[in-house]
Each structure stands twice: as structure tokens, then as C-alpha cells.
Amino acid sequence: MDLLKRIQALSHEYFEEVVFSRRHLHAAPELSMQEHKTAAFIASRLAEMGVNFQERVAKTGVVAQIKGKDPSSAMVALRADMDALPILERNRVDYKSANPGVMHACGHDVHMASLLGTAKILNALRDQWKGTVKLIFQPSEEKYPGGALQMIEEGVLDNPRPDAMFGQHVFPGLQAGKVGVRSGHYMASTDEVYITVKGKGGHAASPEMNVDPVVIASHIVVALQQIVSRNATPYTPTVLSFGRIFGDGQTNVIPDEVKLEGTFRTFDEAWREKAHQRIREVTAFVAQGMGGDCDVFIDKGYPFLVNDEVLSENFRKHAIAYLGKENVEELELSMTAEDFAYYSQKLDACFYRLGVSNIEKGITANLHTSTFDVDEKALETGMGLMAYVTVQELIVRSKK
């Protein structure tokens, strides 16, 4: 039996165990940098496999290594994120979150369980491949500054340094059994924009005696859209959106100030800095021109994510060999963001998508929603494909 068929067979054999891990993790979600029980479960699974690991990397992260033949010939790193979101789950399933108000609504339970399955496959076949695989179970992808940056600062990419790195993320835009990848620029940078508009509150029936921050804030939101429509080049996708506007007045009370909170996303660092400055300038101009004032704070977040073109094409080729050409799709640019981008700045990296939807079963909810779930058959695809792609990339790297 060749290695591809052996990996497929083990994926099928380990499927029920990996489903159990996924459901256990889904029922016990923990927020960013609070993943203590999650880390303990991962450590227990690795210990059962006989895989060496290090705990408490970046507080709650777990890092492990599996060595094949000639361990120093090449190294590939694999990453799964661990944290959940502050969302109240509304699914009616046996494995529903037992932690009210916290939910794995972004599929990190699938990422962890899939990587545990990949680890078990690679460990079982370690006498059939060359090199070393580094497993990175990373905390706090959902919350700035992001666990990836902290793990890098604590040396997760050192001693030894991986030659390449893969990350896998669930994607309800694809049916279970399919994967997607894009070479080059893939996901946007993300910054948080906080604006406080200052005016002079008072009785709503006497607007001439006030400086209305609600009206000023409204003009600011509209004016800032021109940064995207009139300042960004057509070749640089850009988004500026405000999701929270808060003014603590009443129907007949104009407040003293209004707070705006939003996000800015793009794919070009020079334009990113210029846009930040334009946000500050336009906001001040509008506020002061209407008799008010403002404070602007831009919290610079994750960088944009670039998939190494050679590594991504290698992934595509290996995924076609494993799944068939009809199950490997080309992804569009995404304005969502990921702290995996920090890894992509340091080494050859590829971040790809795992299909998890099933229309016939009604599994179609989007990420970050209270009814998000997956067709668990995706776990078999996820763990097997990651194992196969890893072994193939080790072969490529060991020949260099």
C-alpha cells in the first residue's frame, strides 16, 4: 500500500476518535488566553500518542515535535488555533457549549481536533517519512495582539526553524470534502478605529443651544467613506466600516459625546499608513468645522496575509493528488483577517481553507454566528490531507 492510500486508510480509522475530540473541545470552549483546559486536553492526547510536547508557550499554547527518519533533513510546521468566541450558542446538539456565552463559532475546535488526527497519522507512519514536523497549538487568534505574535516572540519558529508552515481554517463557503487555496495575497490587514466626537449636550428641543455630536458623528461616518471611494486606488481592495455607534442620550436629550468604533482593512502597507492619517484628518476637519472636537485612536492589528506562491502551488498539486482536481478550488481575496499572517512574514507559509458545509443536512451557517456547525466528515479530509501534504513537502524540502 502506497503512502497516500495508507494515510487515507488511517484517516478513516481514526475518524471516530477525532470526532470525539472535536465534540469534547466544542462543548468546553474557552476565550482567548484562558485556554487552560483546552491545552490540558491537547497535552493528554499527545501524551497518549507518545509525542513529546512543551506546554505554557505564550501562556496556554502547546508545541510538539514528531521526528521521522533523518530528522534534521527538513522541518514543516503545522498550526491550529485554540480560542473560542464570546457568543451564546443556539445549536441543539449533544455537544453544545457547556460554557454559556462562549462558543467555538469559528471552527477552532475543528482545527485542533484535525491537527491531533494529523499528529496521530504522522506518528504512526514516522518510519516512512524523513524530517521533523512541529505541531503548534496556538492561543488567542481572535483577540489582539494575537497568540501568533506572542508565540513567535517566545521562539516557536526557532530551535529548529521550520522550512515551511501550513495553517488550515474551516470555510462554510465550501462543501465538506473540498478545500480551497490562493497563492500570493489572500487575507487583509485589520485595524480597529475608535473615534470620540465631542460636542455640547442639552435639551433636544433647543438644538441652537447645543453642539450636537450625533449630527457630527453622522457626517463623519459619511465623510470617511470617501477615503475608500476617492483615495484608495482601484488596485488595492479596502474596507472601512463602523459597527458600533454609541451616544448615551435620550429621545429629548442630546449627549455631550458620541463614540464610533469600526475597522479598516487593506492589502498595502504604504496605503494603510496613509489611510490612517486621512482618517484622523477628515474626522478632525468635520468635527471642528461643525463646532465640535474629536479624539481618534487607531489600534493597528494584524498584517495582511501572503501565501508563498511556490508553497501554495505545491499544496495545490498535493491536494489534487489526495482529493481529486474537482475538490480543490481557487479562493478569492478575502477582507477577513488572521494572525497566521505573522508567520507568513517570517517563513514560507500557506493558509488554506477546509470545506465544512452540507446543504442537504442544513449545515450552512456562517462563521461567528450562534448556529455555526460543521459536517464532521470534513475532519477526515482535514487530518488526512494535512498529513499527506506535510509528508510531500518534507520530501521537497529534504531534496534542496
Written account of the structure:
- The protein has 400 residues and is of the alpha/beta class.
- The chain folds into 2 domains: 3-186 and 303-398, Zn peptidases (Aminopeptidase, 3-Layer(aba) Sandwich), CATH 3.40.630; 191-300, Alpha-Beta Plaits (2-Layer Sandwich).
- The chain contains 10 helices and 16 strands.
- The strands form 4 sheets. Strands 1-2-4-3-5-16-6-15 form an 8-stranded mixed β-sheet, sandwiched between helices.
- Strand 3 (75-81), helix 4 and strand 4 form a beta-alpha-beta unit.
- Helix 1 packs antiparallel against helix 10 (377-398), helix 3 (36-49) runs parallel beside helix 4 (108-124) and helix 8 crosses helix 10 (377-398).
- The protein is elongated, with a radius of gyration of 24 Å.
Summarize it:
The chain has helices spanning 3-13, 15-27, 36-49, 108-124, 147-153, 213-231, 269-289, 309-323, 341-344, 377-398; strands spanning 52-57, 61-67, 75-81, 132-138, 164-175, 179-181, 184-187, 191-198, 202-203, 239-246, 253-254, 257-265, 293-300, 305-307, 328-330, 348-357. With 400 residues, it is of the alpha/beta class. It folds into 2 domains: 3-186 and 303-398, Zn peptidases (Aminopeptidase), CATH 3.40.630; 191-300, Alpha-Beta Plaits, CATH 3.30.70.360.
Which CATH architecture of the largest domain?
A: 3-Layer(aba) Sandwich
Counted up, domains total 2
Structural class: alpha/beta
Please state the average pLDDT score: 97
Query: Distance between the terminal alpha carbons, to the nearest Å?
Result: 27 Å
What is the CATH third-level topology name of the largest domain?
Aminopeptidase
What gyration radius follows from the Cα positions, in whole Å?
A: 24 Å
Shape: elongated
